[in-house]
Amino acid sequence: MEITLLTNLLGAVGLGAASGLNAWIPLLALGVAERTGLVTLSAPFNELGSTPVLAVLAVVFVIDLIGDKVPAVDHVLHAVGALVAPASGAVVVMAQENLLTEVHPAVAAILGLVLGGSIQAGRSALRPVVTAGTGGVGNPVVSIIEDVSSVMLTVLAIVVPVLAFLSVVGMVVLGIVLYRRWRRRRAERRQAEQVGPGVAPGVAAPPDAWQRYR
């Protein structure tokens, strides 16, 4: 039982993070997996495998998949995703078989909300930067990367939960490293602008520096 609980918990972490990248992929994948007997979901979340729910999820997934590749439309979808992604994360975590019997439902829900919401928040913060830096051209590329990552995390969470968990840890570490690098470069640019042209960052400008650059 302990091993099963740990496996389900690791898979839940992977699915929750995948929800932040694309809220509909984990839900649709779990529904298909439940329908085909690959996994057994806790009630009432086993309804994800029912025909009406699968049909709705498939339609919404296609709409989101296409719309997220279109500049301006993707920002609207990200605004909606601020609510949908955490909810999706909560559902996929609580849907894990035997997890709710060992973990309080509120704890499982909070775990899913945090995972889905935090990854979604990172996506929403990154997208305007990509739009401004590429004129919107890079948005579809980033969206495809997010979708592929969500699919990979979802598949790993269902088949090899340990690898899904390790992938999430790797994503978090990479995100922190990139964020710190971005902040450092931003600080260096601001410092360079303050001391004036021709002065290396970290080196104090001579007293008459601004006179020379007038």
Question: How would you explain this protein's 3D organization?
Answer:
With 214 residues, the chain is mainly α. The chain has one domain (2-170). Helices cover 78% and strands 0% of the residues. The protein contains 9 helices and no strands. It has helices spanning 2-21, 24-36, 51-67, 73-94, 99-102, 105-134, 139-159, 161-195, 209-212. Helix 2 (24-36) packs parallel to helix 7 and helix 4 packs antiparallel against helix 6. The protein is globular and about 65 Å long. Mean pLDDT is 82; it is low at 209-214.
Write the layout of secondary structure elements.
Layout: H1 2-21, H2 24-36, H3 51-67, H4 73-94, H5 99-102, H6 105-134, H7 139-159, H8 161-195, H9 209-212
Helix pairs in contact: 1-2, 1-4, 1-6, 1-7, 1-8, 2-3, 2-4, 2-7, 4-6, 7-8
Task: Summarize, please.
The chain contains nine helices and no strands. It has 214 residues and is mostly helical.
Name the descriptors.
9 helices, mainly alpha, 78% helix, 214 residues
Sum up the overall morphology in one term.
Answer: globular
Helix and strand pattern:
HHHHHHHHH
SS content category: mainly alpha
Uncertain stretches: 209-214
Task: Kindly estimate the percentage of residues that lie in beta strands according to DSSP.
Answer: under 5%
The total beta strand count reads 0
| Oligomeric description of these chains | single chain
Radius of gyration: 22 Å
Mean pLDDT: 82
